[in-house]
Specification:
- By secondary structure, the protein is of the alpha/beta class.
- It has 3 domains: 169 residues, FAD/NAD(P)-binding domain, CATH 3.50.50.60; 114 residues, FAD/NAD(P)-binding domain (3-Layer(bba) Sandwich), CATH 3.50.50.60; 113 residues, Enolase-like, domain 1.
- The protein is 29% helix and 24% strand.
- Strands 1, 2, 3, 4, 5, 6 and 16 form a 7-stranded mixed sheet that branches. A 5-stranded antiparallel sheet has the order 17-18-21-20-19, sandwiched between helices. Strands 10-9-8-14 form a 4-stranded parallel sheet.
- The radius of gyration is 24 Å and the shape is globular.
- The termini are far apart.
């Protein structure tokens, strides 16, 4: 039986940014919380994803910016040693003591070990020393266990010891020759970053007909153009048919489906992620670990009675972006607090948790790809009556001042019935700081007639907003 100190209002399994946010919001709402983590507190994003990848990408983007400005001279290639050293500082050299302290100062309790459900509102934690600690939740258990890289079933691939995002972002010796499987955000970002840091022979095998196939087509086209100009070998419509690595740590040979052979020092698999639902004890509450945990608008697991189990972030498969997982965590914790206090769930923040409405995404390649809301294809599939407008950003004086030969494009998807933005995509050098304006416009459904009165400063790149609205006819 759990002792009194092992009873909490909320048990959070997973100490990544999503789990940390859920616990912090619960504590802010007056509840007690415990956070369980078997790996590193801070999670994938802090140690192997968002943070280290951007630390590796920014020097590459800055070098690209310098190359587009007359009078500035980047003398020689990027020196990888200080870049990797700075990356190590951002991930605290894979030491999570700081993240643990942040959890404890919420204040919440941190427990190290593998957390498994053991029936309604119960979690058993197997610690590093083999001891098992029983935890009981008065109100709710929140699963925030994230996702793991997906390794496709290619003959010889697993045996070759491929890299995933974890090895790529934690690299300490950049390989000279690299093969990358996949053309999504991780594949694109890490291909370009490692190529700039010394992987001179980088080959991308992309099964689809374009990079970034979940974005507007022009996004992948502009990124592919940039990659090829920098010397990256981008092979569209190609996948790996077999992989061989006779000696561990030695060269790897990839046989593509067209019969060609590519020899490299490392192979990076960036073919997607899968919800981490294994070894969570889901079967003890009637769930099967065969995919993402289905949830309702309040993030409650729909197949579990009494509404005490929640799933937030990648583990529910709704939107595998860190910031959207943190948004879900805030909603989840507010729902739990409202339920605990016997209050209705009618806070404005809980009225619409549709992750497609205004969800932003930024891909830190050169050029950057930033989007909010729906693409044209998704909007049409969902039955909206739409009109799309595009604009070549090179026509904006601020862009011309920022770089010679500026290449960028912006697209708006307009709901013709409501006269508001459904979606927005911008591709260009360092355009990420324009994204939040689009996120606000899409999420708040700002009428275009109102948006026309939001005057962009001259001469800034953000004048593309005015040009885009003029193209629309305002």
């Amino acid at each position: 039986m759990a002792t009194q100190e092992d009873v909490f209002d909320v048990i959070v399994v997973g100490a990544g940014p999503v789990g940390e946010t859920a616990a912090a919001r619960a504590v802010r709402n007056g509840l007690t919380a415990v956070v369980v983590e078997r790996r590193l507190a801070g999670g994938e994003c802090q140690h192997y994803g968002c943070v280290p990848s951007k630390a590796l990408l920014w020097p590459m983007e800055l070098a690209a910016e310098v190359s587009r400005m007359p009078g500035l001279d980047l003398r020689g290639p990027i020196d990888p040693a200080p870049v990797l050293s700075r990356r190590d500082e951002f991930v605290d050299h894979q030491d999570d003591a700081q993240e643990v302290r942040q959890i404890e100062t919420m204040p919440a309790t941190f427990v190290r070990g593998q957390g498994r459900l053991a029936g309604p509102r119960r979690v058993e934690v197997s610690g590093p020393d083999g001891a098992v600690r029983a935890l009981t939740a008065r109100q709710a258990v929140v699963l925030a266990t994230g996702s793991d890289p997906f390794i496709p079933d290619v003959p010889g691939l697993r045996e070759a010891g491929p890299w995933t995002n974890r090895e790529a972002t934690d690299v300490h010796e950049v390989p000279k020759r690299l093969v990358v499987l996949g053309g999504g955000p991780v594949g694109c970002e890490m291909s370009q970053a490692l190529h700039a840091l010394g992987a001179a022979e980088t080959t991308m095998l992309v099964a689809g007909d374009r990079l970034l196939d979940r974005h507007e087509p022009f996004a992948g086209e502009l990124v592919a153009q940039s990659f090829r100009e920098s010397g990256l070998d981008v092979r569209l419509g190609r996948s790996a048919a077999g992989v061989e690595r006779p000696v561990a740590g030695g060269p790897v040979t990839v046989r593509a489906d067209d019969g060609s052979l590519i020899e490299a020092d490392e192979i990076l698999v960036a073919t997607g992620r899968r919800a981490n639902v294994t070894d969570l004890g889901l079967e003890t509450v009637g769930l099967t670990p065969d995919g993402p945990i289905q949830v309702d608008a309040a993030l409650r697991a729909t197949a579990v009675a009494d509404g005490w189990l929640y799933a937030v972030g990648d583990v529910n498969g709704r939107n595998m972006l860190t910031h959207m997982g943190k948004y879900q965590a805030r909603v989840c914790a507010d729902v739990i607090a409202a339920t605990a206090q016997g209050l209705p769930e009618d806070r404005p923040a809980l009225r619409d948790t549709s992750d497609a409405r205004g969800a932003p995404q930024a891909i830190f390649t050169d050029p950057q790809v930033c989007s909010a809301g729906r693409t044209e294809a998704i909007a049409r599939d969902e039955g909206f009556r739409i009109r799309t407008v595009e604009y070549d950003m090179a026509g904006v004086e601020g862009a011309a001042l920022q770089a010679d030969g500026y290449t960028g494009r912006v697209k708006a998807v307009v709901d013709e019935d409501r006269h508001a933005l459904l979606g927005f995509t911008v591709v260009g050098p360092v355009v990420v700081d324009h994204l939040h304006a689009a996120t606000i416009a899409v999420t708040a459904q700002v009428p275009l007639d109102t948006l026309w009165h939001a005057v962009p400063a001259f001469p800034t790149v953000s004048e593309f907003w005015l040009r885009l609205l003029e193209e629309y006819g305002l």
